[in-house]
Amino acid sequence: MPRPDNNTMNRLLLPSSNSHRYGPLIAALTLSAGLAHASTFAFEALSSGTFTYSGAPIVDIHIDHTTVSATPFSFSTLTADQTVNLLDLPPSLVAAFNFETAGGEDLYGTYEGVILPGDNANQLFASATFLFTGGTGFFSGASGSGDLFAVIDITGPDSGVSSIAWKGTLNTVPESGETVLVAGAMLGVLGWLLSRQ
To answer: pTM of the predicted model, to two decimals?
Structure first.
């Protein structure tokens, strides 16, 4: 393969001779790289509401929290279906949960932990670790993990109120539409550069 002459090498390698020409392409590539990689957020939330339960020694619990305060995202509800095994010491719990935004986008996952005695006979605590496993819209392909702590107050024979504090990390990936837009922008810049040569 013939070696390029010095003039060709200079045009390819010297930034001073090409920065005005390839600057826009470099900028587009930088933007594309940023969008193509997952973003990591510190996730914190406090949810509260009601729950219902049935069965023993395997207890099925449905959680319906309509008050959710979260950062950096805003959610309107949290629902979860949880199973507690009273035969384990301490009682174990597993659950699937779903945060939903006012716009209908979902962030879902699972958690596992244990039930602990509360401050009185009608109160329990729960300590668990959670995993984000996906979602819809902005949260499609989401991942991450963290810890949660719940305060559970039994107010009736099959119902109660609870609050859950969540803290962890959330990883999001760019939506396919963003990737297509960036690719289109890069092709446009490349076409403009080629037309000027």
So the answer is: 0.72
